[in-house]
């Protein structure tokens, strides 16, 4: 980057997290940026996630470094080139027209796992085809239609997913003022529901749509524009406007399940032989119950602060969950912005981390190339951090390398 700078070339994607977000905001319209960047309520949880990393300080050792550092980690029987995954993010078309497909290509190029979202803008099959043999996982939202859920699991298996992540903290959609103030929910416009519209079981339900007053025939200019969007998206799936309205209505009426319980986790264990990770674990007792239910890993997360306002910071709960998890691998997301953040999470017991908003901002700025730059920046800073701390491998980071 410095050498290219001699010729006047600047990075397409700002390196500093704050400037990265600001550049993406300048590129996106208000509704799309609100959906990507917003959090629950007064966004106290979002701020708490960032503040938690501020409270953890790295403690380097001198004269113990190495010319080359090893970023690789072992996870669920696979070797990852770095302790980094791309988190599942819904409605990526809000950031860039190529959406999940651009992210899939970027992840494949950098050999980091991409977690396909249930709320994707591109079907998982298309993303898997673009990734070759690169690692991919699938994130599952469990709605009220168990047959659709099972269909998603079967498709993920067929797509070569190496694991299923069951998200637990979004059985209801959080109170999100940025979206509410704009009256903007992308799913009502047919955005972010590609996995559903491409699913044979879900499509078989479209002849019996659920009632949705917001989706009645368009009469105002705004509704007419929404109808035009639905029609355009419907053509991708050979669906007419009526079917698209039915699809959006059925999705909004069935995709959340507030009464999801531990027995459902046991059912999922019966449905698939793939490793299962539970995402949204914050309480140590939930980690213990997860072990008893035979899951394969945990993800400490508060959904990036998008669900409960005033919730505990994910990083603050990481050590306690790791202690309760026993031999289960524990990952972390929520608030990770930099390579030094990754180092802090690893030192506190995480096996790997997931990044979310940063790569979406890169996607907004430069598509696939922008996502790659964000990945490269995080990995480069992690490598330099290890070198400056006198640590030869990412997996060697321990609590001895941090002070609270």
UniProtKB/TrEMBL annotation:
Pfam families: FMN_dh. The keyword Phosphoprotein does not apply. SUPFAM superfamilies: FMN-linked oxidoreductases. The keyword Cytoplasm does not apply. InterPro entries: Aldolase_TIM, Alpha-hydoxy_acid_DH_FMN, FMN-dep_DH, FMN_HAD, FMN_hydac_DH_AS. Keywords: Oxidoreductase. Coiled coil: none annotated. Its cofactor is FMN. Residues 9-404 form the FMN hydroxy acid dehydrogenase domain. It comes from the Bacteria. Belongs to the FMN-dependent alpha-hydroxy acid dehydrogenase family. This is Lactate 2-monooxygenase.
């Amino acid at each position: 980057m410095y050498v290219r700078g001699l010729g006047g070339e600047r990075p397409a994607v700002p390196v500093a997290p704050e400037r990265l977000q600001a550049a993406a905001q300048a590129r996106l319209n208000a509704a799309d940026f609100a959906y990507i960047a917003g959090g629950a309520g007064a966004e106290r949880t979002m701020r708490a996630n960032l503040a938690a990393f501020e409270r953890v300080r790295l403690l380097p050792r001198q004269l113990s470094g190495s010319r080359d550092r090893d970023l690789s980690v072992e996870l669920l029987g696979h070797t990852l080139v770095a302790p980094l995954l791309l988190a599942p993010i819904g409605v990526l078309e809000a950031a860039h027209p190529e959406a999940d497909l651009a992210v899939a290509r970027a992840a494949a190029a950098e050999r980091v796992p991409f977690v396909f979202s249930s709320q994707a803008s591109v079907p998982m099959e298309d993303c898997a085809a673009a990734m070759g043999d690169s690692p991919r996982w699938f994130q599952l939202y469990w709605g009220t239609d168990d047959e659709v859920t099972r269909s998603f699991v079967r498709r993920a298996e067929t797509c070569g997913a190496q694991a299923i992540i069951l998200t637990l903290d979004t059985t209801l959609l959080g109170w999100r003022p940025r979206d509410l103030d704009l009256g903007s929910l992308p799913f009502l416009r047919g955005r972010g529901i590609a996995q559903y519209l491409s699913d044979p079981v879900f499509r078989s339900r479209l002849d019996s749509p659920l009632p949705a007053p917001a989706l009645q025939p368009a009469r105002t200019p705004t509704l007419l524009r929404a109808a035009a969007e639905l029609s355009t998206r419907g053509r991708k799936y050979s669906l007419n406007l009526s079917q698209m309205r039915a699809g959006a209505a059925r999705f909004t009426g069935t995709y959340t399940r507030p009464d999801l319980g531990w027995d459902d986790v046991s059912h999922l264990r019966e449905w698939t032989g793939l490793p299962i990770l539970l995402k949204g674990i914050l309480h140590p007792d939930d980690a213990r119950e997860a072990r008893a239910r035979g899951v394969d890993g945990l993800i400490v997360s508060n959904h990036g602060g998008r669900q409960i306002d005033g919730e505990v910071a994910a990083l603050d709960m990481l050590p306690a969950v790791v202690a309760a998890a026993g031999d289960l691998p524990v990952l972390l997301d929520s608030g990770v912005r930099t390579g030094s953040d990754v180092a802090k999470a690893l030192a506190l017991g995480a096996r790997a981390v997931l990044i979310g908003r940063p790569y979406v901002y890169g996607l907004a700025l430069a598509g696939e190339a922008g996502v790659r730059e964000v990945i490269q920046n995080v990995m480069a800073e992690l490598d330099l951090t290890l070198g400056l701390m006198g640590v030869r491998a990412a997996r060697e980071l321990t609590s001895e390398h941090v002070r609270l």
